[in-house]
Amino acid sequence: MRSAPPFRRLAALWHDRTGTSVIEMSIILPVLVVMVCGAADVGMAFLQQIRIQQAAARTMEMALAYRSPTATLSTTIIHDEGATGYGIPVADTSNQVVADMWLECAGVRQTNYTDVCATGSPARFASVAITDNHAWMFASLIPGWSATVPLRGFAEVRLQ
Residue 44's domain spans which residues? Predict the structure, then answer.
C-alpha cells in the first residue's frame, strides 16, 4: 500500500476541523481571565475609595452633631473619629487622617479657631482628609511591578 503524497496529507490536515474549539479556547481563555481579574481589581479599588469617602463624611456628620456641654470639638476628636471610621488605629502617626479647624472673618482665614472677628460675621469650619493606597491584587503576577494607587476621602463642613 502506498502512502499519499505529502501535499495531499497537508491538504487533508488543512480541512480537518477536529480540535478547532480547543485551539480557539486556548487563545481566548487567557484574555478573558485577564479581563475578569482586572475588572475585579478595579472594583476593589472603587470599593476602598467609597469606604474612605464614607468615613470622611460620617466624621463631618459627627462634627455637626457634636453637642457636648463639657467638651469642645477639637481636631483631635475629628482625627480620632475619622481614624476609627476608616479602621485605622487612633494612635496612627502616618498622617493618613488629617483634621483641620479654622475661623474665617469676612472670608479671610484666621490663625486661631477661637478668635473673635473684629468685623464681619464669623464662619467656623472643620475638615477631615483620609488617605490610603490601594495595592493592585494582581500586580504580583507581573515581575517587578508593585503599583499602588493613592486614594483620598475629603469632607468639610461649616460649623458656625
Answer: 19-158
